[in-house]
Amino acid sequence: MSDKRAGRAPAQFDDAAFSEDLKRTSDAGRQVAEAARREYEQDGVPIDDLLPCEEEGREGTALQHCMKVYLPRPGDKFGMVFRIELSENKALLVYAAFGVRHHPRNSHAPTVYEIAHRRLQQ
């Protein structure tokens, strides 16, 4: 895990969860998610892009020990959530979800935070 560039955190992706998220997103979302995954798997996630998730969100989500990135920069329509885990005494970002950060009012589609919450509760 020390092969990542300085200022970046290693990330690990779950193929099944990532594939599920790609099925529910738009073509633009798919391009953003796939580009981010390629970058993050190769170079790690830029630490400066990581933001803490709210431990208890407005939507009833519980995302303790999670970080998020807004995508694409600078548009920020989409987001990716990672859970922080320890592997061989080093921090590792484990993929939890990708999706739209906030939907229009009265939308019943789940946000990236709700998707991550549901997966992490399983």
Portion in helices: 25-40%
Mean pLDDT: 91
Number of helices: 3
Oligomer status: single chain
Order of strands in the sheet with most strands: 2-7-6-5-4
Number of strands: 7
Beta content: 25-35%
Secondary structure class reads alpha+beta
Uncertain spans: none
3D shape = globular
Distance between the termini: 27 Å
Largest sheet properties: 5 strands, mixed
General description of the model:
The protein has 122 residues and is α+β, with helices and mostly antiparallel strands. The chain contains three helices and seven strands. The two termini are 27 Å apart. 29% of the residues are buried. The model has no long low-confidence stretch (mean pLDDT 91).
Question: What would the keywords be for this entry?
Answer:
122 residues; alpha+beta; five-stranded mixed beta sheet; two-stranded antiparallel ribbon; 3 helices; 7 strands; 30% helix
Topology at a glance:
Blueprint: E1 8-9, E2 11-12, H1 15-23, H2 27-43, E3 45-46, E4 51-52, E5 66-71, E6 78-87, E7 90-100, H3 112-121
Parallel strand pairs: 2-7
Antiparallel strand pairs: 1-3, 4-5, 5-6, 6-7
Gist?
The chain is α+β, with helices and mostly antiparallel strands and 122 residues long. The protein contains three helices and seven strands, in the order ββααβββββα.
